[in-house]
Design brief:
Elements lengths: L2 H23 L4 H14 L10
Length: 53
């Protein structure tokens, strides 16, 4: 498994966990979960010329 695929999979799992946590925790935790999810989202974005080829 390539490093890009591992990073993408980890980010996807983190976003799913944030979503599930938001459902169970309720509105009072959204102030912390939304910025955390945004950081994961932008951190997982592909970069130009990041692959080996």
């Amino acid at each position: 498994m390539s490093a890009n695929a591992k990073k993408s999979t980890t980010a996807t799992i983190a976003l799913i966990l944030f979503g599930a946590l938001a459902l169970f925790a309720g509105e009072k935790w959204l102030w912390a979960l939304i910025p955390a999810a945004a950081l994961v989202w932008y951190g997982a974005a592909p970069r130009l010329r990041s692959g080996r080829n």
